[in-house]
Design brief:
Elements: H1 2-15, E1 29-34, H2 39-52, E2 61-66, H3 67-72, H4 75-79, E3 83-87, H5 95-103, E4 109-111, E5 132-136, E6 138-139, H6 150-154, E7 158-159, H7 162-174, E8 179-183, H8 200-207, E9 215-219, H9 228-236, E10 243-245, H10 253-259, H11 265-276, E11 283-290, H12 297-310, E12 314-319, H13 337-360, E13 366-375, E14 380-385, E15 390-394, E16 407-415, E17 420-424
Parallel strand pairs: 1-2, 2-3, 3-4, 5-8, 8-9, 10-11, 11-12, 15-17
Antiparallel strand pairs: 6-7, 13-14, 13-16, 14-15, 16-17
Helix pairs in contact: 8-9, 12-13
Length: about 425
């Protein structure tokens, strides 16, 4: 989602006559797009701004965009006086006006209002990948997870009309894009605001029917809004990828309740059952937070047991970090950092063993991959399967033929914890 935000900003700047350069040192305007989902990401922002400080006297203009900008607001000017622009993602459509103010000699400009009914779409978007494109279908979040800053940095949920999404999907297909990824903080909370009234499952199915689109992905789903018709849509259309990312965060009902996740372990496992009973072999990935305030060793063991029960194909795991404006910031019984680190290590080791087993099951199978590029050092091409697994493979014509963007059949010969290795099927 942050990558797509950067595409929107770059497209807006290019449309105003700006030219993109390769390094910050060579730029007259430097915009730093930020994330505040974790404390570590936020710390990196101010560390990077300090590095930029020595360039401040050379006539450069610096701006901070995204969630840290929305969260910290004008306080950024105090911590980094060389910054001239602070704007949250809701203000990207107003970037041209803000830049005009700076070009006219304005010292500081902000765009921090979340008072909008619109999604954060810009008229022009620069696409970084010639084969895969992102489409934002919903912005913001109406949930109140105790650890999460997103409702404060992205605002409430706002869905685009189904007609605008379908128009963009068709334009992308006509321009040669074959894979589309639908984006939203809670993508499956999508509700068409037009009279058509589509829900997410309907929109997903219709995007998968667009001529020229061979793959459709989506992220990120909230379990509360993950319904059986989504699985039915995947079963019915092979253009919808065999992969669902369904963040669980914890395997303990006690912790889920403290997190205000709005579902129980049993609710979550009912959705896993839908996925495992599907006709297609759907890969399941997740997010997990360890060390949430009050998480006991018994709670943590329930999360480990959940890994064993679900057998995730991969996961993103994090140590809990306190975020501003969140309910969890004020909870007692904070877990020491060294204990969070221990739990994270145990969790990752357990998941690594699961992934080795899961990936080994693919050895001998033939997988269709979308070729993404080439690893010159290894002499292999890099592809991605419908299940979102990376598959590195050899091809006899690799040195003389560009394969990027093509869909090829590859036989899996080896498996590791994070990727597969194979050879082209001729």
């Amino acid at each position: 989602m942050n990558a797509h935000d950067s595409e929107k900003v770059i497209g807006t700047l290019l449309s105003r006559g700006y030219t993109q350069v390769q390094t910050a040192e060579g730029a007259e305007l430097v915009l730093y797009n930020t994330c505040s989902i974790r404390d570590k990401a936020e710390q990196k922002v101010f560390s990077r701004l300090q590095q930029f400080k020595r360039e401040a006297g050379k006539g450069k203009v610096f701006g901070v965009l995204g969630c840290v900008a929305q969260q910290e607001g004008e306080k950024i000017f105090d911590r980094a006086p060389h910054v001239s622009l602070v704007a949250g993602s809701a203000s990207y459509t107003k970037l041209p006006e803000m830049l005009v103010q700076l070009e006219a000699g304005g010292r500081r400009v902000t765009g921090l209002s979340l008072d909008t009914e619109e999604t954060f779409e810009t008229p022009l978007t620069r696409r970084d990948n010639p084969h895969r494109a992102y489409i934002t279908i919903i912005e913001g979040c109406d949930k109140s997870c105790a650890y999460c800053v997103v409702p404060f940095t992205r605002g409430p949920e706002r869905s685009r009309t189904s007609a605008s999404v379908m128009d963009e999907a068709r334009r992308l297909a006509e321009s040669g894009y074959s894979e589309i990824q639908l984006l939203g903080q809670n993508v499956n909370s999508y509700r068409d605001p037009s009279s058509a009234g589509w829900d997410f499952a309907t929109l997903l199915a219709r995007v998968g029917e667009v001529p020229g689109i061979r793959r459709v992905r989506f992220t990120t789903s909230h379990p509360r809004d993950f319904v059986k018709p989504i699985v039915d849509a995947i079963d019915a259309n092979t253009a919808l990828c065999d992969h669902v990312h369904l963040p669980v965060q914890s395997g303990s009902d006690s912790v889920l309740g403290a997190m205000d996740r709005l579902y129980t372990r049993a609710d979550y496992m009912r959705r896993i059952e839908w996925l495992k009973n599907a006709r297609r072999n759907i890969a399941i990935t997740t997010d997990i937070i360890v060390g949430f305030p009050g998480e006991t060793e018994a709670d943590f063991n329930q999360t480990l047991a959940l890994l064993d029960e679900v057998q995730y194909d991969s996961l993103f795991s994090f140590k809990y970090s306190s975020r501003p404006n969140t309910a969890a910031r004020h909870l007692v019984d904070q877990i020491p950092d060294e204990e969070k680190t221990r739990r994270l290590t145990v969790l990752q080791e357990r998941q690594r063993a699961i992934q080795i087993r899961r990936n080994s099951e693919a050895v001998g199978s033939v997988q269709e991959v979308l070729v993404e590029g080439r690893n010159q050092a290894l002499g292999q091409w890099i592809g991605r399967t419908s299940q979102n697994r990376t598959l590195n493979f050899t091809h006899p014509a690799a040195d003389g033929q560009q394969l990027a963007g093509r869909y090829l059949a590859v036989r899996v010969t080896r498996a590791g914890p994070n990727s597969l290795v194979g050879e082209i099927v001729m």
